[in-house]
Amino acid sequence: xxxxxxxxxxxxxxxxxxxxxxxxxxxxxxxxxxxxxxxxxxxxxxxxxxxxxxxxxxxxxxxxxxxxxxxxxxxxxxxxxxxxxxxxxxxxxxxxxxxxxxxxxxxxxxxxxxxxxxxxxxxxxxxxxxxxxxxxxxxxxxxxxxxxxxxxxxxxxxxxxxxxxxxxxxxxxxxxxxxxx
Amino acid sequence: xxxxxxxxxxxxxxxxxxxxxxxxxxxxxxxxxxxxxxxxxxxxxxxxxxxxxxxxxxxxxxxxxxxxxxxxxxxxxxxxxxxxxxxxxxxxxxxxxxxxxxxxxxxxxxxxxxxxxxxxxxxxxxxxxxxxxxxxxxxxxxxxxxxxxxxxxxxxxxxxxxxxxxxxxxxxxxxxxxxxxxxxxxxxxxxxxxxxxxxxxxxxxxxxxxxxxxx
Lengths: 181, 215
Hints:
The complex is a heterodimer. Chain A is built from 8 helices and no strands. Chain A is mainly α. In chain A, helix 5 packs across helix 6 and helix 6 packs antiparallel against helix 7. The two termini of chain A are 33 Å apart. Chain B is 74% helix and 0% strand. Chain B is built from 10 helices and no strands. In chain B, helix 2 crosses helix 3 (35-57) and helix 3 runs antiparallel to helix 4. The radius of gyration of chain B is 19 Å and the shape is elongated. Chains A and B meet through helix 1, helix 2, helix 3 and helix 4 of A and helix 1, helix 3, helix 4, helix 5 and helix 6 of B.
């Protein structure tokens, strides 16, 4: 990838970040030193990534912008379930979640032999979302290039989230990411 | 992947944040799959997200992974048309970043903790080595140690401001707090850092040997 292509100079942008802030803070003189040191520390951290940092992120994420990538993801769920250990686990979790939803519905005062259909549907929908989410994670290179342990972490995390959603508890704080501000 | 122009690695002291209308245009173009627009957005924001993550994780590779996952989330949301720009992109981006950093911190705590201070400080020191003289390097190390001692909410403000490069208005949007409250909290956090730094310096002077974060 040619870092020179495109319309933007990363260096300029980088520094705009640090220098373009509002000046709404009139710092007392005794605090200016520490504020300046924090600015130095922040600048050091911003300049820490090696050359090609933005290129690597672009390579890993650029394809996610296109609608084609999204369609491809959705179309490939079943194929990926067959080929991915993580997704096989996810499918198993989804099945358990569906059964759990039915069980929960039954425990909310309904007949255990005839669980609430809406509850089952909800469980199934959540399970499908889980599979989709994990399948989506599988399409993201590098950042989600996970070890088996990390795959189990994700499944555990998603299972916990799913369980909370089914039981009506508020979701984990990540849910706020989805809302447009 | 080619080698980066050395000029691009160096901070430029002028520039400013992108104009909000420019950000909106870039987001729209990027949502349509326009690679140059996405690249420009990464140019404005990727290192800020990285710095925010690095300040907390103290690990270059992890911070880069967090940055990648943050922008993967943003790209997916844009690609699906699930984000509508209303002048608050930066606040949203930093919220995603903060949540991702917290997730990573939780994950690290669950796993065998990296209690080796040398490992934790390694990448931080690498950055400081490049940019500082010895004396300044020591002060920056002390500052990082003092940062670790701040409360979560104080530290958040400091890092959003000085690592994330956010304006107080953007931070007010992000944290849902009045501007005046944020300014007061920022002052208070700076004062705590200053006091702690002075304590470190006094202890180091007394010991005669510079020690990192010695109290």
